[in-house]
Amino acid sequence: MQVPIGISVTIKLCCIDYGFECDFTSEGDIEQVIEEFGKHTNEEHGIEYTKEVLMQVILRKTR
């Protein structure tokens, strides 16, 4: 996702939105959310999402 220089984009991903009975939420810039959400789903739910998959999730959510 290309963001013009000087513009900040805040993204929010919540486990509950993706079928998990979990109240985890990650909110922040794209890279931060991808890192946090990916780490959480891997460690807590045993599902390893690639950065590319999480970027697709974010892109679909922002359309």
Fold topology:
Blueprint: E1 11-14, E2 25-28, H1 30-45, H2 51-61
Antiparallel strand pairs: 1-2
Helix pairs in contact: 1-2
Q: Give the number of domains.
A: 1
Provide the structure class.
alpha+beta
**Percent helix among the residues?**
40-55%
Percent in strands: 5-15%
Mean pLDDT across the residues is 88
Major sheet: order of its strands? 1-2
Give the overall shape, derived from the CA principal axes.
globular
Radius of gyration over C-alpha positions, nearest whole angstrom = 12 Å
Order of helices and strands: EEHH
Counting DSSP H or I runs of 4 or more residues, the number of helices is: 2
Which residue ranges are poorly predicted, with pLDDT under 50 across at least 5 consecutive positions? none
For the record, give the distance between the C-alpha atoms at the N and C termini, rounded to a whole number: 11 Å
Largest sheet: 2 strands, antiparallel
> What's the β-strand tally?
2
Summarize the structure.
This protein is of the alpha+beta class. It has helices at residues 30-45, 51-61, and strands spanning 11-14, 25-28.
Structure in words:
- The chain has helices at 30-45, 51-61; strands at residues 11-14, 25-28.
- With 63 residues, it is α+β, with helices and mostly antiparallel strands.
- It has one domain (11-61).
- It is globular and about 35 Å long.
- The mean pLDDT is 88.
Which key terms come to mind for this protein?
single chain; two-stranded antiparallel ribbon; 63 residues; alpha+beta
